[in-house]
Amino acid sequence: DNDGLPESGETIDLYPTIRCVWGSASDIKLSIEADEEFENESAFEIIQNNVDFGYSLNSIGSAKSKNPIRIKLNENLPNNHNLRLIVKLKIGDYEQEKHLELLIKKSGALRGIISEDLTLIPDKEYLIGDLAVPNGCTLTIMPGTVIDFSNKADVQFIVEGKLICKGTPSQ
Length: 171
What we know:
This protein is mainly beta. The protein has strands at residues 11-14, 17-19, 28-34, 44-48, 51-52, 62-64, 69-73, 81-91, 94-104, 107-113, 118-120, 125-133, 138-141, 146-148, 157-159, 162-165. It contains no helices and 16 strands. The mean pLDDT is 89.
């Protein structure tokens, strides 16, 4: 959703940056795979792999890939899952691997006026914008649910209906 946070179910374009310090390089290829020590490939689907970097680099050059590696994250990845990948660089016979870790969120935006009773559960994080709970509606927040108001310094949260927070001292 272009918010900069990798979330369960999203398709992600990765544009690796290469800094060349060993001499000029051309015909650069990039690929990705699961870090099998920590991850299996059911966590994501590779849509576009073995891509051409799109540029040649001189001996002190640096550039971001012109062509993305594209993956689709599994919709069932839990919140705060560390997806561990290996990005491979190939230039002729030379190959190099770099480990990449992405923190996967399972979140949803919540803003506007709630038009019916709503229960927030701890299977995802909720990013709250301006929100109103009108008279006749109930917003229930279950134990362990994470709510984030930090995206906007002046969020308005107006409750004219009911707000039920079912937290515990540890949640």
